[in-house]
Amino acid sequence: MSGVRESDKALWQRVLERPQQVKKLAELTLRNGIASTQALVRTKLAAAHPIGYSLTGRVLSVGDGIEDLRPGDRVACAGAQHAHHAEIVRVPRNLCVPVPEGVDDAAAATVTLGAIALQGLRRLAPTLGETFVVIGLGLVGQLTVQLLRAAGARVVASDLDPKRVEEVRDFTDVVLRPGDADSIGQVIRLTEGQGADGVVITAASSSDEVIATACRMCRRKGRVVIVGDVGLDIQRADIYAKELDVLISTSYGPGRYDRRYEEEGLDYPLGYVRWTENRNMAEYLRLLAERRVSLEHAKAPSFPIDRASEAYESLGASEDRPLLAWLTYPDGPDQEIRRVVEVRPSPRQGSGCLRLALIGAGGFAKSMLLPIVQGLPEKIQLDLVVSRRGHEADSLARQYEAARSSTDVDAAIADPAIEAVMIATRHDSHAEIALRALRAGKHVFVEKPLCLTLDELNEIEAFFATGDEPKPILMTGFNRRFSPYAHALKEGLAGRSNPMIINYRVNAGHVPRDHWVHGAAGGGRNLGEACHFYDFFTFLTEAEMTEVSATALRPTTDHYTTSDNFVASVAFADGSIASLTYTALGAPGHPKELIDVYNDGRVFSISDFRSLQAEGSDLKPVKSRVQDKGHKAEIIAFVEAIQAGGPWPLPLWEQVQATRIALAVEKAISAAKMTGPAESEA
Hints:
By secondary structure, the chain is α/β, with parallel strands linked by helices.
């Protein structure tokens, strides 16, 4: 790095103003963070990405099910998705560990880098008396050197920077001369002509020469462990004759990049996975506490968080560049924790626009809902953005010109100035947040599904069935009925004299089994997405359903599931029959949604909401280059219904019916899940 420009400092200041709080899992007050030379500061600031992945702090509160940590405990945390440079962060349990007595906050804040170095050794599997070379003596490399010595190995250290070589001289048996063209020969001579037992690469370079050098330093059947980011164009001649093992070390250890481990708290049994990323973190801190690893030689400067730019400038300096720098935060037990951040002045009352709060800032909210809201300034004023990640809420609030951001759902529900909430959280929280908002008198637009259980649906119905006072509008995001193709189709069916047969085919695409939509948070693809299509059936028939059945595919491999490969059939009181074929088996190039409606000698066909064709009817074809599934029209209808009064754009009974159909289908396909995959015939 060459330092941070003045324009970047302003962006950094924006990052500093983003508190991050939530109620679940753990909230930690930071005492120290660690700044890394590898962080692409400008890029992350410009993209409003949080910076940092290693910290220590004190627990403010813990979520349900966490019994081994209490408020006030000192912990160290890891993870680029959670352990940011901020005063308050939310960190899942498997990404934080208690800090032992005798380890100060500054040293504990290096827990992530220590775990990375330790995982490199796990892959290397050193034994007592072996000789290893460490290439690259940044902080991870220097920790690797100390860990190898603690494991009883002989260590040879190498770096292009003479200063870094001198910093590890006390921890190594031999240091290679920086820039020496004969470094390979040095290693061969030091090992009595055999070569090193292994090499750990902790350098960062785009060059392939680093790994070539490492391979040539090794003895026959040696091993090379790649920890750093280096070029990987390996020459066969460098590894074949000596039969070398070239291994990748992934970050902090087993569990990294596994959502179930990191986000959901699913631990790996110690008897099967001895060293997870959490156990590596804890072991590194234990080694610090026992003084078997030390950072005392680092002489790292410390910077208050409001001087963060200076910290990064120091790391980018050409001379006297420190190994690392610490960012510190006010102790501040008296410092007020802000759960709502003012981004710009709130709109005045009586502006004529609907004052809206967005709750949930996932991919759909970013890609679809927020751009639509921003494009309707004459109808909607986005007042508040709520997300469990504070930096994300703040970034979106600024991008879409909201007045405030927060991590607290109550900030939206309890604010009397907010007239309506738009819920775009994960599916399992839809019903709970919607009911809370409705009871507070807020109009609710909730992305599909409305809910995931029959009990939740009954509770929603009960809310509207009790009391005589006017109730707020509830609208589920069943957008397809608001598409111009849907309206043209319904117009073509007007005056029909017979029931219909509706055939809806969905080429849904494959979603990996470990995706959240398949889990408890998503409820599966039938409840989470197919409810759209059951609503479309109700929209066309305007009739109550009388019977629901479904048959699920039994895949022969675990790549596919029963829950997103099924055929559902629904009968309606007007005599119409609708079928849904929902599958993840298809090809991505095929249209996702194809609808055929048969009635009175006519066939109407919609292809991916880009075209509508009719056979046996005088309905003119409708076609456009741009797909229109009705997202914008549904939001306009929601806002205008609130402002003008009158009938709901989506009657409650129809929202309830679509959900009941989905629940009935889920019950049917769940029976198929219990039978397991089909056995293939010999």
